Amino acid sequence: MVVWAFTSSSAVVHAHPVYPVLLVLTLVAALLVGGRSLLGRNGRPASPPSLARRLARALAILGAVGWLGALAWLRPLAAADAALYAMTSNGTVTVTESATSVVFAPTGETAPTAVFFQPGARVDARAYAATLRPLAESGFLVVVPKQPLGIAFLSDPAFETARDANPEIEQWVVAGHSLGGTVASMEADARDADLTAPVVGLVLYASYPAADLSGALRIPVLSVSGTRDGLATPESIAASRHDLPADTTFVAIDGAVHSFFGDYGEQSGDGTPTIPHDEAREQIVTITRGFLADIEP
Q: Measuring CA to CA, which of 157, 173, 213, 260 is 20 to 30 A from 186?
């Protein structure tokens, strides 16, 4: 399973270090256990194991199967060609990838407002490059954290890291896709009153907050969704109106699905699109650019 995880997805190599490290440790443990088992065979018939030993062995096997199942489930959804193409630097945007983040930086004048974007659960951070790079082309610095194990809830310190690394930025818009948007809404609620480099806007892609923020947020909010989304369904987006400020801007992309907010292939449980991916992405980019342009420093 460990070899499968490494060879079947380039996203593993580009993931936050926690996941590949766990894969390597699992492989080492498997080799040690296998080697010990082979060395323990001395040709003599073994005495029947006790009941306690049989139970312990059964529990160990169940635990190992569960662990391998969890590692398989956590394997990132790899970035597709459109996103990988957008990961190349040119005269307009510099793309920098590290072990813990992907940064899209304008080569020219940079706006005082930057974007911190949380990926969806188990999605390769690079998968959003084709959607977010155009924002950098418009002058906005964009920082995408690589989440530990691909779970946004585990990347809370990443925003502070991004803010400390870019002291020239006066204010931030936090954004996110799916579970990443849920965590972004928490970050907005926690940091919209900061005196230094505060959060001044929230962008939700196929997402909604986990709690009622209708009276807590005092910043502009944009919610972009797809009418054919099988995960963040139109019904769940409609229900989120009660949890967001009354002046939240809701935009539904007709025919778009959950995975169209990034480029990582089809996603289990998603709907069937009735619009080309490129067309949906173009609409998402245009809507987001307009939202950012309206936020004054």
A: 260
Rounded CA separation 267/5 (Å): 18
What's 101's DSSP letter? E
Measured CA to CA, the distance from residue 257 to residue 218 in angstroms comes to 29
Give yes or no: residues 32 and 140 share one domain.
Answer: no
Tell me which H or E stretch contains 209: none
CATH number of the domain that 219 lies in?
A: 3.40.50.1820
Same structural domain, 10 and 106: no
Please write the tens of the pLDDT for every residue from 225-282.
Answer: 999 999 999 999 999 999 999 999 999 999 999 999 999 999 999 999 999 999 999 9
List of residues 6+ apart from 100 with CB closer than 8 A? 16, 17, 145, 146, 158, 161
Q: Are strands 101-106 and 93-97 parallel, antiparallel or unpaired?
A: antiparallel
Number of structural domains, the chain?
2
Same domain, 165 and 46: no
- The range of the structural domain enclosing residue 205 comes to 81-293
64's tokens: 């190992």
Contacts of 297 (CB under 8 A, 6+ apart): 111, 112, 113, 170, 171
Indicate if 239 and 204 belong to the same structural domain.
Answer: yes
CA 183, 208, 231, 250 dihedral sign is negative
Angle (CA) 124-128-130 rounded to 5° is: 135
Instruction: Select from 33, 24, 19, 21 the least CA-distant residue to 3.
Output: 24
Instruction: Name the residue among 60, 225, 77 with its Cα closest to residue 147.
Output: 77
Confidence (pTM): 0.88
